[in-house]
Design brief:
Radius of gyration: 19 Å
Oligomer: single chain
Strand content: under 5%
Largest sheet: none
Number of strands: 0
Shape: globular
Distance between the termini: 63 Å
Amino acid sequence: MPRAGLTPDLLVEAAADLADEAGFDHVTLSALARRFGVKDASLYSHVKNIHDLRTRLALYAGAEMIDRIALAVAGRAGKEALAAFAGAYREYALQHPGRYAATQIPMDQTLVADAPSFRRTADITYGMLRAYGLEEPDLTDAVRLLRSTFHGYCALEAGGGFGAPRDVQRSWDKAIDALHAALTHWPRDE
């Protein structure tokens, strides 16, 4: 019988907080059980296993992140939308490192296809890129370029990997300028 007050949503929210506090790798059923003062077995009424919990956390964090991005890009196009998208992405990754790490885990593509937050992410991202005149397969290539650039930059910044004296924000702004130029002059197949 499920413990009164515990729900899958409550567990996921607690897992999100734990991920930000201790790191995504430290999100375990035992750690959550300790937070709630229950035995590990009590959580199995709400989640199947650690994989299920982490998948739910990834979906939760992905929804939070795209909500912020959607607000940032609303009413914008071109470079302005790109900068807003990138800024919201970076802000989320730096403010919520554990939740952000959850969004990077490999996921079953059938779950991704059924998740409204992932469809919304694709709609917003592809919509922004269509303003550059991109169509498939260039859209997929451009999404991969943006994701790898944003993720790499955020990972290096969070880990203290930028040691040069140049201001990190100025470098970020240049990266957005460079991405805008790349998207504007995207190499087309002939």
